[in-house]
Amino acid sequence: MRYYTKTEEWVLIKDGLAYVGLSEYAANELGDIVFVDLPRVGDRFKKEESFGAVESVKAASDLYMPISGEVYEVNELLEDNPELLNEDPLKNYIIVLTGIKEEELKDLILK
User: Which residues, listed in sequence order, are joined to residue 17 by a DSSP beta bridge?
Assistant: First the structure.
């Protein structure tokens, strides 16, 4: 099950890691995504802090952390293929976090 923020990011907990992505609704509203600004592995963020941005033909939008954690992995495929977020936003995560605080999930929307 995924947890969603009010700003349309999702988080999926799997094997102690948190996969973070963009909701289908947000991907559809943005239109054709042409660029994703990714953080670096090792960067640490607090819940609700901006960790990057997506740019589309319509607009640019900041991405916000659903929970606190350290960037363990970035989806490097998005650097050359940002449109993957439009094609399948639930499959194509943006980052993976470690050192997460699962108690912060209680404030998110479970779907």
Answer: 14
Q: Is 29 helix (H, G, I), strand (E, B) or coil?
A: helix
pTM of this structure = 0.96
- Return all residues near 111 (Cβ < 8 A) that are at least 6 apart: 1, 2, 3, 4
Q: Which residue has the tokens 């948190």?
A: 18
pLDDT in tens, 28-73: 999 999 999 999 999 999 999 999 999 999 999 999 999 999 999 9
- Does residue 9 lie in a domain region? yes
Look at the chain and report how many structural domains it folds into. 1
Any domain includes 109: no
CATH code, 55: 2.40.50.100
